[in-house]
Design goal:
103 residues; alpha+beta; Alpha-Beta Plaits; four-stranded antiparallel β-sheet; 3 helices; elongated
């Protein structure tokens, strides 16, 4: 299974009252949302400043990662990055360095 880091930040831009009302709507919508069955959320955390959050998700269906952005895009701006475990990355970086030294 491939691993992804999903990050999101609030789309603020209205008045304080508009942002408050928008936040209420976001909470109502989130309360009805269910995590997709083809995704395993390894971490699901919020920023302590209240401006966004992160999820580390494993899935074999990268297209399924569109679920949250398509449902929450009026309130949140998303980024999705494929990632690998650091041990795997270190091996790849070492192999790259060895290759460059042969040139």
């Amino acid at each position: 299974m491939a691993k992804y880091v999903v990050s999101w930040e609030l789309r603020l831009g209205g008045s304080g009252q508009e942002n408050h009302e928008s936040g209420r709507r976001l909470l109502d919508t989130f309360g009805k949302w269910q995590m997709p069955g083809d995704q395993e959320f390894l971490q699901f955390v919020a920023r302590v400043d209240g401006q966004g959050g992160y999820a580390v998700v494993e899935t074999d269906n990268p297209a399924g990662l569109q679920d949250a952005p398509t449902k929450f895009s009026p309130w949140l701006q998303f980024e999705v990055h494929p990632v690998v475990d650091i041990a795997d990355n270190v091996v790849a970086v070492a192999e790259g360095a060895e290759f460059r030294e042969t040139i």
